[in-house]
Design a protein that fits this description.
This protein has four helices and seven strands, in the order βββαβαβαββα. It is of the alpha/beta class. α2 crosses α4.
């Protein structure tokens, strides 16, 4: 028997347990019944951010960005396209560093956009600068090996 994976619902933040082989079966949250994987980046802030990176067994890719940042806005459609391809193997999230300055400070975000990959509650890789979809996918795959 395989060990169940914990994944945090992008809607209600409930922690769900499921067998890894069910990830591709469009699983829904046991609490709110919404889809656990939407193919879109999840906006995270405050305690939601910590819950998603600390309680999920899935890797969590985070885009640290700000609304006034031109490169951040130009990368957004590429990041959304990457989310559609990475889920359900990776949770894809965004953190607005303007609205969540405490998170940016806690993780030492010095430039935006910055991608950070978390796994098991720890940061495993970081990449500053805008990238296209293929660049994002290649970078994530490189660090998940």
């Amino acid at each position: 028997m395989t060990t169940p994976l914990h994944t945090v619902c992008p809607h209600c933040d409930a922690v769900n347990r499921m067998p890894p082989e069910r990830l591709g079966e469009a699983p829904t949250c046991g609490k709110c019944q919404a889809s656990l994987f939407t193919g879109q980046p999840v906006d995270l802030s405050g305690a939601r951010f910590l819950k998603h990176i600390e309680r999920s067994d899935l890797p969590v890719l985070v885009d640290f960005w700000a609304p006034w940042c031109g490169p951040c806005r130009s990368m957004a459609p590429f990041y959304a396209q990457a989310a559609r391809q990475l889920e359900p193997r990776v949770r894809v999230a965004k953190v607005d560093t303007e609205a969540n300055q405490d998170i940016g400070a806690r993780f030492g975000i010095r430039s935006i956009p910055t991608l950070a990959l978390f796994h098991g509650g720890r940061e495993v890789a970081r990449q500053p600068g805008a990238m296209d979809t293929n660049g994002i996918l290649a970078w994530v795959q490189q660090h998940l090996r």
